[in-house]
From TrEMBL:
GO-annotated molecular function: ATP binding; microtubule binding; microtubule motor activity
The name this protein goes by in its record: Kinesin-like protein kif21a
Domain called Kinesin motor: residue spans: 6-114
Gene: KIF21A_3
Keyword set, alphabetical order: ATP-binding, Cytoplasm, Cytoskeleton, Motor protein, Nucleotide-binding
Stretches of the chain forming a coiled coil according to its record: none
Subcellular location, record wording: Cytoplasm, Cytoskeleton
Binding, ATP: 85-92
InterPro entries tied to this protein: Kinesin-like_fam, Kinesin_motor_dom, Kinesin_motor_dom_sf, P-loop_NTPase
Example of a GO biological process term: microtubule-based movement
Family, per entry: Belongs to the TRAFAC class myosin-kinesin ATPase superfamily. Kinesin family.
């Protein structure tokens, strides 16, 4: 386990849903180029360990956030992955229902390395 921090936080920005688009809801979240930071509105900045934009693919999130933690589990360390957010914010999607096939591939990768 190389990472010295006990908790890492990643944020994934999801696309607006169709009802939001229909009611003309303004997208007020901006990414800070070159930094894992988002700005909400005009003056509230939040920094994370990782920030994934609307275009981010599931496998990129896996590679950057989960792969090493899952390997550490096999070395005797504990790991927890938590998806947090309000209803409809994309937790289930990010957890992997859209990832079933790639997840199976990653599972094979993990078990073949042991």
């Amino acid at each position: 386990m190389e990472d010295e921090t006990s908790v890492r936080v990643a944020m994934r920005i999801r696309p607006q849903s169709a009802p939001s688009e229909l009611t003309c809801v303004e997208f007020v979240l901006a990414l800070t180029p070159g930094h894992p930071q988002v700005v909400l509105g005009k003056d509230k900045a939040f920094t994370f360990d990782h920030v994934f934009d609307i275009e981010s693919k599931q496998f990129v999130i896996y590679e950057q956030c989960l792969r090493d933690s899952l390997k550490d589990v096999f070395d005797g360390y504990n790991a927890t992955v938590l998806a947090y957010g309000q209803t409809g914010s994309g937790k289930t999607y990010t957890r992997g229902l859209a990832l079933i096939s790639p997840c199976l591939q990653k599972k094979k990768e993990l078990f073949h390395e042991q």
